[in-house]
Amino acid sequence: QVLSLPIVVIVHGNQDNNAKATVLWDNAFSEIDRVPFVVAERVPWEKMCDTLNLKFMAEVQTTKGLLKEHYFFLAQKIFNDHSASLEDFQSRSVSWAQFNKEILPGRGFTFWQWFDGVLDLTKRCLKSYWSDRLIIGFISKQYVCKLLSTEPDGTFLLRFSDSEIGGVTIAHVIRGKDGSSQVENIQPFSAKDLSIRSLGDRIRDLGQLRNLYPNTPKDQAFGSHYNSEWVGAG
């Protein structure tokens, strides 16, 4: 006898996300000599970080993995804790329920459903941008405001949407004549949006965007991602 890799049988496509979560958890956290179907209910957060990173790199087919600041954002999200430090999270463990059963506060989806949506979007539409480190992605709206509030007018960055599954949004600074600043978040783009017009071309279209945070002119950062279509005068 030999145990196979885990298999989940589903009867409808809407069960696909939960099935992937079950297989991922079993593959990553079960012991080789375990009793069949017995898997840890809680795992160290550091192990979860390694698993999410490996999954992200494999799905997106990129050599650019998650960074320390990305893990910090993900920990704040899964533990619903914005007061703990990066070191505090390293000693915690995360449960299956936190991973894929409990709905995130104020949302209609679980942590895994949200993360899987990011995976799918990045794999389908954002691989080259991510690999060129043009997308911060895993960063909170609150922290974006802190980063951008002191920057010049037109400074922007890209983050994955908190409120929608599989969306990327552009946050940018608008500085008034009195010197006051306001950070605006453009309506998130979905995979469907980006299949119609690429992210690079959308950024080129938006005249209010000038420099990718912290200070790279947008044409220098995204020029290689523009389509070489001829744009005539309107």
Automatic annotation (TrEMBL):
Gene Ontology terms describing biological process: cell surface receptor signaling pathway
Domain called SH2: residue spans: 114-224
InterPro entries, A to Z: p53-like_TF_DNA-bd_sf, SH2, SH2_dom_sf, STAT, STAT_linker
Gene Ontology MF term list: DNA binding; DNA-binding transcription factor activity
The UniProt record lists the keyword Transcription: yes
Keywords carried by this UniProt record: Activator, Cytoplasm, DNA-binding, Nucleus, Phosphoprotein, SH2 domain, Transcription, Transcription regulation
Main location group: cytoplasm
SMART domains associated with the record: SH2 (SM00252)
Cellular localisation: Cytoplasm; Nucleus
Keyword Phosphoprotein on entry: yes
GO cellular component, one term: cytoplasm
Family indicated by similarity: Belongs to the transcription factor STAT family.
Name this protein carries in UniProt: STAT6 protein
Gene: Stat6_1
